[in-house]
Design brief:
Layout lengths: L6 H9 L7 H8 L3 H11 L8 E5 L5 H8 L3 E6 L2 H9 L3 E4 L12 E7 L7 H11 E12 L6 H17 L4 H20 L2 H11 L1 E9 L4 E8 L1
Parallel strand pairs: 1-2, 1-4, 2-3, 4-5
Antiparallel strand pairs: 5-7, 6-7
Length: 229
């Protein structure tokens, strides 16, 4: 891969390669069916030009990649897990093994870029600047991430992520239970560090404008879109 791995990268590599073979099925089940809806909206609202060259960062098994390909785009799937990319490649993806902090492409290589569930595993300012670097001026970018519900739904979310999700993960095996136990605290830490104003400021500082943010599924899903300045 040629990149220096950060602590967040190493966490991702501990968690995700062992679940690559059944990631798509269990990510849908454990998100209570919401993850596919969020990914579909991410792509539907991206506003990439027809036939765009698109980079899908943290592509995993290629769920978003396939949605982009269905729209006629030329997509490159990038991830740091060989195992996850192996599944994506078997489903027709053109894959690149690398980290988001050191993308192996020249400046302005892509007209559009997507990324999912990435910022909790990287140093966000570094990764966002690198995403901006490979996107041409005027290019579009979209993100899907877990959010944290507010108000009356917060305690129920806390119970599900701290107790229900790890327990449900056991149905899929110990490797999924580890992922379930990791997610709740990880989402909490990110939400405390980047409430909406800080998150929008992060995107602006990386060189993006027209930043839009949407919360879905009672706040459990976080979607963002923007344009490269």
């Amino acid at each position: 891969m040629g990149n220096v791995l950060t602590p967040g990268n190493r966490s991702a590599l501990r968690l995700f390669p062992p679940i690559a073979s059944d990631y798509e099925r269990w990510s849908t089940l454990l998100s209570l069916g919401q993850d596919p809806r969020w990914r579909a909206e991410l792509v539907a609202r991206l506003q990439a030009p027809p036939g765009a060259r698109v980079l899908d960062v943290a592509a995993g098994t290629g769920l978003v990649t396939r949605l982009l390909q269905a729209q006629g785009h030329d997509v490159v799937s990038l991830d740091l897990s060989v195992e996850m990319l192996g599944v994506a490649r078997r489903n027709g993806a053109a894959t690149v093994l690398a980290t988001a902090e050191a993308l192996p492409f020249p400046d302005g290589s892509f007209s559009a870029l997507t990324f999912g569930y990435l910022l909790r595993y990287v140093e966000p300012p570094v990764a966002m600047r690198e995403l901006a670097r490979v996107l041409r001026p005027g290019g579009v970018i979209g993100m899907v991430e877990f959010g944290r519900p507010r108000g009356v739904w917060r305690p129920w979310w806390w119970l599900y992520t701290r107790l229900g999700l790890p327990a449900a993960g056991l149905l899929a095996g110990r490797r999924w239970s580890r992922v379930g136990a990791f997610l709740g605290p990880s989402i909490d830490r990110f939400a405390r560090r980047f409430p909406d104003p800080a998150l929008i400021a992060l995107w602006h500082s990386a060189g993006f404008e027209d930043v839009q943010i949407a919360r879905r599924s009672l706040g459990g899903g976080l979607l963002m879109w923007a344009r490269r300045s």
